[in-house]
Amino acid sequence: MTSRASASSLELHKALHRKKNEFLIGTAAALVLALGSAQPVFADELSAASSTDPVEEMIVTGTRVKNTTAEDSTSPISVISADELLSTGKSNLREALANVDPSFKAATGFTGQTGIAVRRAALRGLSADHTLILVNGKRRHGSANINTAGVASVGSTSADLDLIPTSGVERVEILRDGAAAQYGSDAIAGVINIILKNNDHGGSADVTVGRYWDDGHKKNGYGPSLQAGVNQGVKIGDGGFLSLSSNYTLQGYTNVAGYVPGNMYPLINGKPDPREATSNRYRQIMGNPRVQNVTLGYNAEIPFADQETKLYSFATAAHRRSSGWGTYRTPVSQQNPYEIFPEGFAPQFVVVDYDYQVVVGVKGKTGNAWGGINWDLSTSVGHDNANVRNEDSTNPSFGSLSPRNLDNGNLKALEWVSDLDLSRPVDTGLFDAPLNVAGGLEFRYNSFKEQAGEYFSWADGGYIIQTGPNAGQKAPPGSAGMAGFAPQDAGSYSRHNIGAYLEFDQDLTKKWNASLAGRYENYSDSGHTFTGKLSSRYQLIDQVAVRGTVSNGFHAPSLQQQFYSSTLPAYGVNAYTGVSGIQITRYIQSTAPAAVALGGKALKPEKSKNVSFGFVFDLLKNWNTTVDAYQIDIKDRILPIGVNVAYATPILTPLGLNQDYSYQFYANAANTRTRGIDITSTYTTDYADWGVVRWNLQSAFNWQKVRKATFSSPQLSALNYSAFGRSTIGNIEVAYPRNITSVEANWKLYPFIVDLKETYYAKARGLNDVTPVRDQVVDPAFITDASISYAITDSLTASLGANNLFNKKPRNLPDSLLSTYGFPAVDPAPSFYSPYGTNGGFYYLRASLEW
């Protein structure tokens, strides 16, 4: 197993705590280590008596050549072990990876109604749709759910890492480079390959309990959590194995909202209700959802009699229930029938996922008569069913007839992939080393189905509010906060694509390696595309190597981006007109009549051009560094387009399409450029009787730019309205920190292991569509993580740890911004643009057992 790489010195660690010149110090340290150190190698876990010699680990991602190490790769690759993931104290794979690798972006803020169930993860500051997820080298199916709100990866439908049991993960390989020519659609920013355990005996178990810091002004919402996992290996026949894994996670909700200001109750004879003075004003709940998640998995392999041919299979299954709260409807809200909820209510948005994926394959090697070809034939079926519900809620338009729990409908996605992969070395006689040739074919089928919810979830009951300040007004239709999927939203859609690839890898000399890959894909709905990749690595001297790649890639629009539709009714203030009332937003297909009238068109694939260049330093035996710079240009990037009701109405009314709605749809809205530098550096020191310390520094610099807005609407332009607004541009350019740097020391002195990490987050900003005065700013911050582990026996270890040890939180929004939320504000309220979250410190205990 690999152990966590660490870097820098105690002096640097102290410096990172200083309040002056913090960023300059962190950046200078990164550059010093980058220019004077060596490539990170991934070593077996160090005991107190172990040497500092690195043990190189073979990789399988980004290359089809056997016995390739991360150091020898032509592209930057990180290898993260199961022990590293477990030591983070995080409850799922997504958060653990984000804690370990600063180039890995995980959404932390508000994610909207259906978004409570899926928090996407991505590489290099791009969308989650630009990162391909593999399990054992096979494509992982995407989520049925689509995130329609929030900050990160809006509209993405990528694979859900939280539905993979972490107890079954042996390691994770992260390829930070364009790889569409090797793996197909989505691999624009890189590839995350999750390698499952293949043990044929023994096992492990772990239990982690923890909670967030109690800030003292609320009685609940501190996110207590329980995470338990177990793995067991079983031998099958002669050389076969079955590795079984399961995980259970119970994550409590968090609440970072302040009190509800202003009058909550109707006035009595023009004066405040006496209950205003004594009523509980902490009724809004904002933060992490409550999640209960059960995941199961296996990985198996059985050799045939010849021991060369092997039958293999692996699978995962998951059941997850996620529930979060919508905006608190005060007693005076138009969405609150006062005679039904005299104290108001906060609807719960619930998403229940039923998810599985099964992969079956046969692999082997032909005899010499057939050229000794390595072959792998496999098929995979993955399916996700997301049932969307509203609980403790109502459809106000039905008054007292409305159920309190409403089934809003289902989102279902299926992916079937079949692959044939071939490879063999060929002696061309041109070079000392053989030419490694690989090729293959792929067939992929995708389907998406949106099923209507129950009648009460979407229908208009016509109820007229009887009492309270809104008496005589018509109550809004649909489940509060998110209407159910109506029959007009329902539909079934599918597509298929075929692909073929060729890849060549050649050691031109003992110091120079080059590889060339090409791929053709044809989509039934998006046409065909060719992608290619040229990579090379040259060993300048024994201690320094240079590497680089040039490639192009693509991302085909998902079926959800093309066909998802729904209705979102909410009470609030129209940001453009200042008028309070029910604001209804329709999410529609880009080819729907209303969308076309507003400038919508059929979606095209996104296309990218990638260039990267880097150095691998190996100047000392136990000091390693990599520095890689990159540029990613994406053309026709798919982004959400929002049109406010105040501007949609004058365009749609003459066409007979107006329903007093705001609209949102997806469009090929912009050409963007991403530039960045990734730095990693590790140094190992052996203090003899005082143990071994691994120092690790990782720094990810990232700059995003919208080069050109490609969405245009003459009708909206005539009204001086930009549907591709400041908030969308800001979510690309400034919502993600331009630098994340972490410095870590991991000290092993048996029976103790002490880990201390300091992470720097640069400034993040949220731009407002209406005026810069309403922009949100999250200041730079240093976050400290710490843990100490004690080996009670050779097989039992206890750990105590903290993520965000000093309970750092982003500053609250100023009072001047609270009224611009568009819904009843709370005071204080945090900014959900915070890259390190809004919940503060998390503290945990863990017990781990191996046998």
List the helices and strands and how they pair.
Blueprint (H helix, E strand, L loop, with lengths): L9 H6 L6 H14 L22 E2 L8 E2 L7 E5 H6 L5 H8 L3 E3 L14 E3 L7 E5 L2 E2 L29 E7 L4 H4 L6 E7 L6 E10 L12 E12 L3 E12 L38 E14 L6 E16 L22 E18 L8 E18 L14 E21 L8 E18 L2 H4 L32 E17 L4 E12 L3 E15 L2 E12 L3 H5 L2 E8 L6 E8 L5 H5 L8 E15 L2 E21 L1 H8 L9 E25 L5 E18 L4 H5 L7 H8 L5 E11 L2 E10 L2 E3 L9 E3 L2 E11 L4 E8 L11 H4 L23 E9 L1
Parallel strand pairs: 6-9, 24-27
Antiparallel strand pairs: 1-2, 3-8, 4-5, 6-7, 8-9, 10-11, 10-35, 11-12, 12-13, 13-14, 14-15, 15-16, 16-17, 17-18, 18-19, 19-20, 20-21, 21-22, 22-25, 23-24, 25-26, 26-27, 27-28, 28-29, 29-30, 30-33, 31-32, 33-34, 34-35
Can you describe this structure?
The protein has twelve helices and 35 strands. It has 851 residues and is mostly beta strands. A hairpin with a 3-residue loop joins β20 and β21. The protein starts with 9 loop residues before the first helix and ends with a strand. The N terminus is likely disordered.
